[in-house]
Amino acid sequence: MVTWGGIADDFTGATDLAGNWVARGLRTVVTLGVPDAADLAGITDADAVVIALKSRTAPVREAVRESLDALAALRALGCTRYYQKYCSTFDSTPAGNIGPVTDALLAALDTDRAVVVPAFPDAGRTVYQGHLFVGDRLLSDSSMRHHPLTPMTRSDLPGLLGPQTSHGVAVVPLPVVRAGAAALGAELDRIAAETDTPVLLVVDAVENADLAVIARATAHHPLVTGGSGLALGLPATGEPAHAAMPVEDGHRVILAGSASTATRAQIAHARAAGVPARKLDLAALRADPDAEVDAIVAEVTAAWAAAPRTPFLVYAVGSQDDIQRETAPDQTPAGELVEAALADCARRLADAGARQFIVAGGETSGSVVRALDVRRLEIGPALAPGVSWARATTADGLPFNLALKSGNFGATDIFTDGWQALD
Ligand SMILES: Nc1ncnc2c1ncn2[C@@H]1O[C@H](COP(=O)(O)OP(=O)(O)OP(=O)(O)O)[C@@H](O)[C@H]1O
Ligand SMILES: O=C(O)[C@@H](O)C(=O)CO
Q1: For 40-65, what is each residue's pLDDT tens digit?
Q2: Three-state SS for 345?
Q3: Looking at the CA of 317, which ligand is closest?
Q4: Alpha-carbon distance 326 to 79, whole Å?
Q5: Rounded CA gap, 87 and 119, in Å?
Q6: Which of 10, 17, 89, 145 suits a disulfide with 85, CB 3.0-4.6 Å?
């Protein structure tokens, strides 16, 4: 019976949440986009279903509509609890899309509160006094300050969320969490009873033990919101529930559209280790995208011919200077060019025999996975906190091994050593 329904605002985030549910013993399926009736009928024996949307940077109305469609699909599956998954670095703008989606889900579920828990200590995300930290830095002092789509220039969650929601936002500090689930639950009740309108409750958490307390205190809440960390706070229902993941025989490719610091370090490491690589040429893409993709495919297939088991890395950003933030009004933004090119590369390289993909970046993963026409993922072993191998099948039944890596997740050697589970 499906209990949990996840609504994730990007594809890497969806596999991140799914991986953590799997780690707690929940059999979890990820659908890419809102599932139709046929997709729903194919979901059997799952405890949790995550619907991956590409709504993080979509227009607000679209993000809300898609999230409500996802909620309706999850309700149709019989879910009784819902998890709005957004980025552990709270990627959003003053317009949204975190707050508007939470408001809409609260209204649709007719509930008066939702906790806000971006903390994911295993990945270095902690919340203290309502402020979000990335490692030892405030969010606004981290590399997220320079994100090409959602630059995060402040760290206080009420300040970030306030402009995005029509509801009140309260902070529940760490000592209340450390007082245990009963005390935390009583405090959440007290705050919720103070107003007639729903309230968003930012709860501090710096360790997994704090997440376990929050999970217990919210066990009766229809809706929780956060990064994936809160899923790790659930009581384990058994051994990790990884899907069997047959290794698909074929070539390996890494597609990195992410501009994040961790991805850049992973690219530098892979290049230093001799992984054949090609950086997208933005000027060439602007001039003639098909010709640039033709040239990439020719280079990758030649490299595979020489070394069939060696992955090839196609990437967008080697250093901060590569990021083009401004474009003339009549020009396609660089990010769109990159996503379209990597999506095209994915399709063409799959036709040429690629069966094992690591894709870096949430937006990038959305574009790539759509181009591959993958409808659902079954989650396999983890490569890093928040990153798992998955078995993917296209609408035509073509199977892949796919790992969708969030921009700032994964150790430096993930592009060289992340393949071990497939060896
Ligand atoms: N040179 C560039 N100039 C501007 N934008 C770029 C450039 N290269 C890539 N991009 C865009 O930057 C965006 C990066 O977002 P993406 O979500 O893929 O990665 P990320 O933010 O690092 O990952 P995550 O969302 O998982 O944290 C994509 O839309 C990508 O196309
Ligand atoms: O929560 C995270 O940090 C990731 O799953 C993510 O959403 C990055 O795109």
Answers
A1: 887 878 999 999 999 999 999 999 99
A2: helix
A3: 1
A4: 43
A5: 10
A6: 17
Claim to verify: residue 37 and residue 155 sit in the same structural domain: yes
pTM for this model (two decimals): 0.94
Cα–Cα distances (Å) from 419 to 309, 343, 357, 380, 384, in that order, read 11, 21, 9, 13, 12
- Last residue within a domain, chosen from 204, 233, 262: 233
Q: What is the Å distance from ligand 1's center to 8 Cα?
A: 18
> Does residue 361 have its Cβ closer than 6 Å to ligand 1?
yes
Going from the C-alpha of 156 to that of each of 91, 122, 136, the distances in angstroms are 13, 21, 15
Task: Tell whether 174 is covered by a domain.
Answer: yes
Decide: 102 in ligand 1 pocket, CB within 6 A. Answer: no
The rounded Å distance from CA 386 to ligand 2 centre is 8
Question: Is 229 in the same domain as 265?
Answer: no
Among 7, 27, 1, smallest CA distance to 73 is for: 7
Judge if the beta carbon of residue 323 lies within 6 A of ligand 1.
yes
Domain co-membership, 201 together with 346: no
Q: Is any atom of ligand 1 closer than 6 Å to the C-beta of 388?
A: no
Neighbours of 385 (CB within 10 A): 22
3-class DSSP assignment, residue 11: helix
The residue range of the domain holding 138 is: 4-233
Q: What is the pLDDT of residues 338-389, one digit of tens each?
A: 999 999 999 999 999 999 999 999 999 999 999 999 989 999 999 999 999 9
| Span from the CA of 308 to the centroid of ligand 2 (angstroms) | 32
Calculate the CA 315 to chain-centre distance. 19
Closest residue by CA, ligand 1 atom 2: 323
- 338 CB less than 6 Å from ligand 1? yes
**Those residues with Cβ within 8 angstroms of residue 45's Cβ, 6 or more apart along the chain or in another chain:** 27
- One DSSP character per residue, 216-274 reads HHTTT-SEEEESSHHHHTSPP-SS--PPP-PPPPSEEEEEE----HHHHHHHHHHHHTT
